[in-house]
């Protein structure tokens, strides 16, 4: 299957959300102060996420791609549960389901806009 331009944008934006959520989790772990490796790795991951976001905008419209950054909330919940021993509640789970469904609908609507043009 050959990916179209929007698919590349979506892929870059998903990885952008993953890197920014990872960077934020590392910042949370950086409790040792200004000289902890977690702090600097968090800055690095966040910067990579920002660069991937800039690249993603080359492949699609802002109105479709930017809302996909909300997937960072989903990644943050997963990282929080796996690595920070945070609890997940029913409300958090339902919120994440809504975010994922919204991201899917945006991707579908963006694909349909490209076909109509």
Structure summary, number of beta strands:
0
Shape: flat
**End-to-end separation:** 21 Å
| Total tally of structural domains | 1
List the helices and strands and how they pair.
Blueprint: H1 5-29, H2 37-56, H3 62-65, H4 71-83, H5 90-116
Helix pairs in contact: 1-2, 1-4, 4-5
At a glance:
The protein has 117 residues and is mostly helical.
Could you please describe the fold and organization of this structure?
With 117 residues, this protein is mainly α. The chain has one domain. Helix content is 76%, strand content 0%. The chain contains five helices and no strands. Helix 4 runs antiparallel to helix 5. The radius of gyration is 16 Å and the shape is flat.
Keywords:
117 residues; mainly alpha; 5 helices; 0% strand
